[in-house]
Structures are given as structure tokens and as C-alpha cells.
Amino acid sequence: MSIDLSQFHQVFFEESFEGLDIMENGLLVLTPNSYNSEEINTIFRAAHSIKGGAGTFGFQLVSDFTHVVETLLDQYRSETRTVSQVGIDLLLESVDVLRSLLDELQAGREPDLTQSVALKQSFETFLASTEPTANAPAINSEPEVSTASEDNSEITEKEIANNSESVSESDKGFWRISFIPSVDIVQTGNEPYRLLRELSELGQTTTVVFTDHIPDFPVLDPEHLYLYWQIDLHGDVQKEQIDEIFEWVVDDSTIEVQWISSSDSAVSEISSEQNVAELTANKELPSEPPVASIQANPTKIEMAENRAPSEITTEQAKVARPGPAATENQSIRVGIDKIDSLINMVGELVITQSMLGQIGNDFSIDKLQRLQEGLIQLEQNTREMQETVMRIRMVPISFTFSRFPRLVRDIAKKLDKQIRLELIGENTELDKTVMEKIGDPLVHMVRNSMDHGIETPEQRIKAGKKAEGCLTLNAYHQGGYIVIEIVDDGKGIDPQVIRRKAIQKGLILESDEYSDQHLQELIFHPGLSTAETVSDLSGRGVGMDVVRRNIQELKGTVELDSKVGFGSTFRIKLPLTLSILDGQLVKLGEETFVLPLTSIIESIEVSPEQLSTVAGETDVIVLRDEYVPVIRLYEVFNIEPRNRNIFEGLVVVVESGSYKIGLHVDDLLAQQQVVIKSLDTNYRRVEGVSGATILGDGTVALILDIAGLLSIVGEQTLKSTSLTKAAS
Amino acid sequence: MSNATVEQNGLGELSVDDQKAISEMHGIDQYLTFVLDDEEYGVDILSVQEIRGWERATKIPNSPKYVKGVINLRGTIVPIVDLRQKFNLVEVEYTPVTVVIVLKLYFEAGERTVGIVVDAVSDVYSIKEEDIKGSPDISRNKNSQFIKGLATVNEKMVIVLELARLLDDEDFANVAVAP
Question: CA nearest B65 in A: which residue?
Fold first, then answer.
């Protein structure tokens, strides 16, 4: 009977995380002492649905915790309490706590309760300490917690009235619940059995079902429910919990909950075995049907018996539920328009296929033209479909950006700086995997910009700038790439400071001459930090190199553009997707390699006057006003080429980061989209190769990794070139 | 001398499930054997995914010489290892009977599919666990670590290979080699 709710857990977690994001964003907009019903309502709704969901799925601790949050929000909503900074901070903190609670639950671990209990405590003291401003509407907005305790006290009073000796309600009595559902309860989607089962989970229950409302067979509507129940619930249960169970049906069903203290319970305990007697004794129930009809054979259901099997099923569900796999099994929300266009395309593909099939069935040479047309159409369909499928994986970058307002607010507070965050291009889409992996590096860079880049208000005013610093996150598409810029108007990166640091650390020699750009880019070198003091935010010297490595793993690049006194711009360039690549096939000896089309600048035939040799070993070609070193791929890869002479074959000029290199290859073949397959699944990473792909003829071709190639040939070549550049 | 259970081409009469059940009951494993330089080697048949003819593989730059390259196995990129070269045997020209045995191997890093080039596929034997004798102490030989033991089948010696170790050396480590 019981539905395995665990299958919906994933959806609940996803929705809750979304809800938390909504709450967070809303809270950041809230300003103390103002009243913004729109925002508060949004926050309240998000909190409420998290609470509701958690309750439904049995995450008691989440719903309990959300409850106090909701109470405070409700006071804000009904204007019984003015919004204060303390309150906002408290609520923000609660968002964090809830997030970690849900994280733990999602991973199938037992969450650590210390934080949530402590915060709940501070919520309760906060709720108790500050008096709600207006008292008049307070009844309505009274925190539910206190309502609960009121209820309790009512009970105790009642209990005392009934039995002066009773101390605790838990073992001195029981709840008598009379539940008369409306006849069409089943049509509204509410299952009385579920309610009874939930009741039975609260404690020991004795349930009596009444069948006297059942009409004669000719007039019986099979879709109506004519039964009603009386449930005796023993155990340490609060009225609130019972009310919660009937929350959904309370509007059209008659529900009476009564506390029967132990003096009565003696009677009813006996009577539970003799139903008829019991029911006659219980005349005080207002909903009681006429005595005569009660005796019409009441059926007794011992809910305790039903409990055992239902427990077993939940147990089984627990076993069946994959624990940590829950996080791996991610899902994605896709706009219905994307799905629709995909369905359209599949339809077209089917039409094309049947057309081609028809041609193929009785093919003669005069149908060649139609075949070719069909194939062109097929190609078009395939390409369109590929693009649409790729679009499904695309999500707006706002998913990542949305965490920054909070982050910037918190850090600015910590650093005592005034920082305004500007987000541009939040709707720029990129692949979900890329987005997930770029989040952490972005956080790191934003922190760095705030810590080292933007100055304190005093320093800024001294420098003639506005006290409030500005940090801009900008995302846009450029070719097959997404570009994310992190711009600050801070003090910029002083190349001389870096130079000093680098010499001190032995990274460069005192005598070496470097361009400012080159020196600034040393911040990506492991073990170099520019912060004068190490703070807990950044400055330990691990960081930018990790950032760069992460970005390179995503086949992206990061550039730095900094002007002393005017601020810095970090420009991250990432491929839109990791699984498909526009490639240029090149031939080298027997092998075919794929070069990412986006990294190619041009292909040239080198003439002798363009070529010069640096230090007797590195070939450098003059390309307009630049010197570009040439890598002989066959040497790097130990392949026997067709042409060893650089003047035969072609040089493909590619760029990675701010470096340009020429690759000497035998020939250029076609351009095509290739699906990237990993080499390390069955083999391992190969330096200079980012993966493999399968060509049209079924053979494997390796995809070149320009950044990796650069690190193979070593810094030596590049150093000498940058020298040349600086000198020229 | 022959105390090993011999069941040549034993797949004929019993279904695979029965075979499995029997081998689980008696601790008998089935081994696919292949010939390499006139010696017979055996691999656990459950790790064998398929047997296919040799086809040209795409070379991987800067890989060990015994890694012949990668092939496309229905969309998966699978590396091919020449066992002759791996075992430092005399190299031979590949002929039409040169076969590639595609194996699923379990490494620490996870499951990997690897093809091995051998001279020819030989037979399927059932060999009891206890009939596999430890290999003679040839610890100085690097390749001895790939050998699980020796078994005698039909008065012939079969070298039973421990495949999980066969390719689990530094060449297949999941880390990129330093440039």
C-alpha cells in the first residue's frame, strides 16, 4: 500500500536548494526598517515549501528548523515586527544551516545537529526577546511555537481538571480523534488510510471504523467514502502533530480531537475490546451517530498490527535507496521549448529516413540526385539535432553568479570595505558540467579581487576614487567560447612588487628582463602571493595557480589585464561544451590529428625569408610584426613525418593563453565536428593530447591539447620568444 | 602427473549458467588460453570481453613501445598492448591469425578495457584453484609479477596470468608523466 517516497527525495532536495537560493537572494534585497511585502512573501513561500516538503518526506529536523524560520518571516510578513539587520543576518545564517542539513541528508549521512540546534535556540530567544511591534493583530501572527506551548498548557489544565493527580500528559491519557471525512474525500486525492497510518506512527492507536453511513446498495456511489473513524492515540503526542496530519482534509471533513485523561481511559481501554459498549459510553462525542446505527457492526482495526508491515516497507525502501549515489545521479531542468524543438527535429529525421529508405529500396542510377538531396537533408537534420541536444545541457550562468551577492556582502563586511557587485550577462548559457567546475575558481578569484584588489574606503578616497569599490562579473559569448570577466576598480597589480617577490622566491633572476604583462602573469605561478599579509581569505600563495589549472582542465584560458591604480581584469575563456569540438584534421606522417578550430589563427606556407633560428635550435617565423616559435610536432611525438623540411608542408599558427606557436604539419584535411572521447577511461592521460575521437571511417584520431604541448616544449622556447618580443 | 580437471571445449554440453554454478561450487575457474612464442598462457575467461582480428591502431605519442595504440571498439577508445613486446619476446610480423583479446580488467582506479595482441587463441580449460602451482621464484624478472601460477593441462604447461597486475604499472598509472 505505502508509496516509496524515497524516489521523490531527489526532487525534494533540488527544489529545496532552489528554494534556499530564492530565500538568500530575497534576504539580500531586504533592508532593515523597511517593509517590502513582495520580497518577504517570496522568502516566506520558499521557506514554507521547504518545510512542507521536509514534513512530507519525513525529514523532521529540517521541518522543525524551518518552522522557527517561518515564524519569524510570518511576523515580518504581517508587519507585527519590523525587519531588523539582526533578523536578516539570523535568517541568512539559517539558510546556510539548512543547506548543510540538506546536503548531509542528500548524501545519506546523519546530519550534525549542533549548529542547527544552536541557531534554533538563538531564533527562539530572538523571537521571545523583541516584542512584536503591534499587538492587535498578534493573535493571527503569534509564533506557532508559542501556540503549541499554549495548547500544551491548555491540555495540562484540562488534564488537571479531569485528574488532579496527573503530572504528565504522556502516560496519563490519550487523544480521542473522531474523523468524519467528507464523502468525496477520495476524489480530492486524500487517502484516509494514509492519515490513519500516519497517526499510527505517532503512537499506539486503536481505530474503530463506523460503517453505518453506508447507504443501500442501489444508491451507493462507489466513488464516495461512507466510512468514518474514531481513533484513540496513546503516547507522547502533541495536538499540533495530529492537526498537521489532518492539515489537508480539515476544510471539508469533520475532525474532533479530544484529550481523554486516564480516569476516562480506564473505561475506554476496556471498551476498546468491546466496541459496542465503548461507543455507547462515549456519548459526549458530538459527532457521534445515533446509537442504534453504531451497533450496526462496527469493525475494529488494530492499527498496531498494520504498523509492522509498513515499517518493513520503509526499511526496505531505505535499503533500496542508493546512498551516496544520490549526488551523482544529477538531473537537469530543461525548458519545455527545448524539448519541443527536439521532438520536431526527431519528426523531421524520421521523415528523411523514410524518404531515404524508399530510394534505397529500388535504387537505380537516375535516382542519384534524389539520394544526394536526401543525404544533405539528413546531414542538416543531424546537425540541428546535435545543436538542440547540446542546448539541453546548457544552463544560464546565473546559477553560478547567484551565489556572489551573498559572498560579496559577507566578505565586504569582514574586510570593512564598501563593495558594490555588478552582474552582467547572467543569462549567458554554458554547459552544466563546465558551470559546475568553474564555480570554485570564480569564488576564489572574486575573493582575491576583494581582498587584494579593492582598497579600503580611506585608501580609495586618498587615491581620488569613490569610497565604494566596484566589482563586476561579466559573462558573454565569443565564438565557441564563453568569456567571464572579473573586473575590479582597485589598485591593480604592481609588476614591480611581483618582480621583487619573484626574485625573492627565486622564480626569476635579478638580471632577467620581463615585460610588465609577463611579470603580472607570474601571479599564476605556484607559490607566489602578492598580499602583504596573509589573511584567512586569501594570500597564502596557493590559489591563482590552482585556478589556472582548473581552468586549463576545462580547456579554457585565463588572462590578466591590470593597470596600477585603475584595477584589474581577469578574463576567463571557456569552451561552451566539453563533449563536442569543432576540429581541423591535420595529417602528420601516417596519423591524423585533430586541432581545436577555435585555437587556430591561420595556416601558412613558410618562405625562407620568414624563418630565423634562435639559439641554433628554435625556429621562429616572422608573422607580420610578431615572432612565432615553431614546434616540430614529429619531434615532440616521435613520429616519422612525410616532410622534415619546414618549407614543405604547412605551419598552423595556434594560440593558447597569450602565446602563439606554429605547428609544423604535413597537410591540412577537412574541418569537422568531433565528439570528444576520453583516453584515460581505459588508458591514461597523455601529455599534449586532450582526448581522442572517432572519425567517419571508424578509426581513432587524437585531439591535440595546445596548452599541454606548450608545457612539453617547455618554458625555454617561450622565454626566449618573449624576450625577443620584449626586445623588438 | 595430470591431476588437473580437463574439460576441453567444455562449453558444449552445459549452459553458461550451469558452468558458472559448477565452477562456483567446486572452485573451478575456466581459463581462455592463447599462444605466445609457443608457450600457452591462460586468462580468466570471465574477464574476456571479445576476441577480434588485428587491425591498425592509432599510435599514441610518447607511449611505451608495447602499447600499440588505441582502437575504436564500438565508440570506446581501447588501448592495445602487444604481449610479446611486454614480455620481451621476439617480435613477429602480424599475420591474419594474429588476434586481439579484449579484456575487462579491474584496477585500483576502476575498470578498464584493454586489448592484448597474441599469436593465436588456443582453448578453454577448467582448472581447479588448487591445481595452480606457484610460479618458480624468478623474482628478479620484472614480468614474473604478472604470473599467477602454472598449471598442467593435458600434460602441457599453462601459464596462468594475473591480469589485474598485467598493466597496472607506472605506464598505466592514472597520473600524467612529468614533461
Answer: A638
Contact A686, A679 (CB under 8 A): yes
Residue B166 Rama label (left phi>0; alpha psi -120 to 50; beta): alpha
Q: Name the domain boundary from A575, A595, A629.
A: A575
Q: Does A403 touch chain B (CB under 8 A)?
A: no
Q: Does A679 touch chain B (CB under 8 A)?
A: yes
CB A13 within 8 A of CB A105: yes
A327: in domain: no
A703 vs B: CB within 8 A:
no
Segment A95-105 shows an average pLDDT of: 85
- A280-318 in b/e form (b: 16+ CB < 10 A) is eebeeeeebeeeeebeeebeebebeebeeeeeeeeeeee
Tell me whether residue A329 is in a domain: no
Q: How many CB atoms lie within 10 A of CB A169?
A: 21
Looking at A558, A575, A592, the residue that finishes a domain is A575
| Residue B72 sits at the chain A interface (C-beta within 8 Å) | yes
Tell me the mean pLDDT in the region B126-147.
Answer: 71
Q: Give A593 to chain B, closest Cα distance, Å.
A: 10
Active-site residue, from A70, A169, A485, A521: A70
pLDDT at residue number B12:
42
Is A448 one of the catalytic residues?
yes
For residues A650 and A605, the answer to whether their CB atoms sit within 8 Å is: yes
The CATH number of whichever domain residue A533 belongs to comes to: 3.30.565.10
Indicate whether A80 pLDDT > 50.
yes
Has residue B96 got a pLDDT over 70? yes
Same domain as A299, residue A417: no
CATH code: domain of residue A660 = 2.40.50.180
| Mean pLDDT, rounded, of chain B | 75
Has residue A19 been placed in a domain?
Answer: yes
Residue A318, pLDDT above cutoff 60: no
Confirm or reject contact between B61 and chain A (CB < 8 A): yes
Measure A684 CA to nearest chain B CA, in Å. Answer: 5
Domain range enclosing A685: 580-727
Q: Please say if the pLDDT value at position A321 is more than 50.
A: no
For the stretch A421-446, pLDDT in tens is: 899 988 888 888 888 888 888 888 88
Residues on chain A touching B59 (C-beta within 8 angstroms) = 590-591, 639
Residues A174, A196: one domain? yes
Q: Max CA-CA distance within chain A?
A: 116
**Nearest chain B residue to A687, by CA:** B176
- Are residues A442 and A408 in contact, defined by beta-carbon separation less than 8 angstroms? no
What's the pTM value of the predicted model, to 2 decimals?
0.47
| Domain identity same for A584 and A688 | yes
Query: Do residue A224 and residue A362 come from a single domain?
Result: no
- What kind of fold does domain B16-170 have according to CATH? OB fold (Dihydrolipoamide Acetyltransferase, E2P) (2.40.50)
Which residues from B are below 8 Å from A687, CB to CB?
62, 176-177, 179
Q: Is residue A31 part of a domain?
A: yes
Which residue type sits at A625?
D
Q: How far is the first Cα of chain B from the last one, in angstroms, to the nearest whole number?
A: 53
Among this protein's residues, is A48 annotated catalytic? yes
Task: Report the domain count for chain A.
Answer: 5
Question: A61 and A126, same structural domain?
Answer: yes
